[in-house]
Amino acid sequence: MRNNMFRRLPVEQATGRLYGGRHRLRVVYRTRDLIVLGLGVMIGSGIFKISGEQAATTAGPSVIVSFLIAGGVCLLAALSYAELSSIVPVAGSAYSFSYVAFGEIWAWVVGWALVLELLLAASVVARAWSLYAAQALADFAVPVPSWLAGIIGQEKGFDLFAFGILVLLITMLATGSRMSLRSLWFMVMAKLIVIGLVVATGLKFFHAGNLTPFVPPARPAPDGAATVLDAVLGAVTGSKPEVFGIWGVFAAAPAIAFAYIGFDLIATASEETDDAPRKVPRGMLTSLAIAVVLYVAVAVAMVGMVSTDRLDPAKPLLATAFGLVGADSMGEIIDIGAVLALTTVILVVLISLTRVVFSMARDGLLPRPIAGMSRFRVPSRATLVAGGAAVVMSQSVNVLTLEQMVVIGTLFAFLFVSAGVLALRRDRPDLHRPFRVPAAPVTAVATILATGWLMLNLKVQTWGYFTVWMVAGIAIYLVYGRRKSQMKLLLDAPPPGGRAAARRDAPPPGVAPLDASFAGPFAGSSPGGGFPAPPPGPYRTGSRPNVPAPESPYPTGRYSVGRRPIGQNAADPHQRDPYGRERPEREPYARGGPGQGRPAREDAADGPADPYALDPGVPDPFASGPHEEPPYPGGRHRR
């Protein structure tokens, strides 16, 4: 393996025990928790803000189609996320997937884009939360002192509500409070009830005439709203940027993608999920499908109640729509639902931001002390660092004007994840994939094209800001991450004790020679053509000659060792392997008998224990005989 900035993280290493107990997360999520996690972040900003805003300013009633377009693209991307999450179930999400598929520099680029997405999302939604909270106080006629009125519900500058909600949620996460998951459940259920009331009441006032014209005539776009596609078409054809019309339908879709940010964040919870390779894809796809249905239902109810010409983008649009049809009491209910909904969005975004920063620091691309675990068994340092950055950004930057920056960071990650499916299908077809993208080449290419189209419909100004952010990120990597990378340090490390590779003049009887293509990055031979020494340290990924590669890349817990060869490929249990170690007559984790589920005692002369061995007490899922699912929270994550 070349030790440069294109070095790849082996799948077996990404899912193994390299990081040790100080850098491992505890299991807290099940499938239903993942669905709630996804709904907690996806249902909120889009339903209570973006849907009405895009209908009033960009697409008109055809915003319904824009939601379907954005949802379709996100569903395609979710399939790619689901497959890679089943292969690499770790906290880094698209960052870790890119590290495995493309190499370190590309992983850093994707991770830096994710930091932009999540950091801005937390800041933007905190500001939106403050606006809705201040509106709720006014709607309920709660008296607000004059000194307080000037520092709450502000679009820019210091805002006490935005500051307070961020500090509260950061403190909950940094101290490992179990209230966070229970509170998430309560708030998600409450806002689902509110959405049900919104849809039912909105359909009561539905009038088909409000959908006409479904695609309003195109009109010139306001200054500063030109997209990259507009600029390209203007340079080629001389046309002016427009909103509404057919182009408006597509132009609204990228901003609406902001609403669906959430299914990709579920991947950051993989290390904290029992049986993650199967449950994460299930929770991801289920929550996205539910969110798309709810968004379309609310959009139909809203644009069917009032004409989009009567909506004021400067006001909370859903509550305004109900006020225009005489259902003023719904406005107060929506205020409560919006505050709860946006609270869950901030909570989940902060969780995901923390996990991405934690993963990058754990790999050494950010200062590694950030990845330390606190006495609360959570990455408190990463939480405080990432959360502190969100607080500073929310108070010092006019973040409400940068919403599309969140979208471009998300779509950029979508591109790499979809391409990662193709790369790993080509380079590692042997990997065990509990979830597989149907018609992978076609689906992945379609996702890349659709995502690229959405990115072209973002503003030129957004691309400019994004370029500046990414250039700054690459500079940070070249100055710091490239030198401090854990992969670099481990590849540079000499063999333990400085021992040279043992000479093997001939392979053992019945074992084929190890060819270069199978030997991997540490291949090498003695002058006599012998076998290479096993790679040093915790990066040992070598295999016995003439034995198929394991089906599963999960070196610990349930997804640990590959299926033993049987039949004509079965190895003699009494012969020695190419590295001179005597094969035991009995599997160290064989079932039955004394010491069941405990590793065989290791001879000190044989070196340190295998860092990728099964956890004590965990059965081999690929052994013969019946296999039972471990009780929650069991499996590879049980601590």
UniProtKB/TrEMBL annotation:
Domain of life, per lineage: Bacteria
Biased composition (Low complexity): 512-525
Native source organism of the sequence: Actinomadura nitritigenes
Keyword Transport: yes
Main subcellular location of this protein, as a coarse class: membrane
Name of protein: Amino acid permease
Segments for region (Disordered): 495-639
Record carries keyword Cell cycle: no
Localization (cell): Membrane
Annotated keywords: Membrane, Transmembrane, Transmembrane helix, Transport
Membrane topology: Multi-pass membrane protein
One Pfam family named in its UniProt record: AA_permease_2
Compositional bias ranges of the Basic and acidic residues kind: 573-589
Membrane-spanning parts: 63-84, 105-129, 160-177, 184-206, 244-263, 284-306, 336-358, 378-400, 406-425, 437-456, 462-480
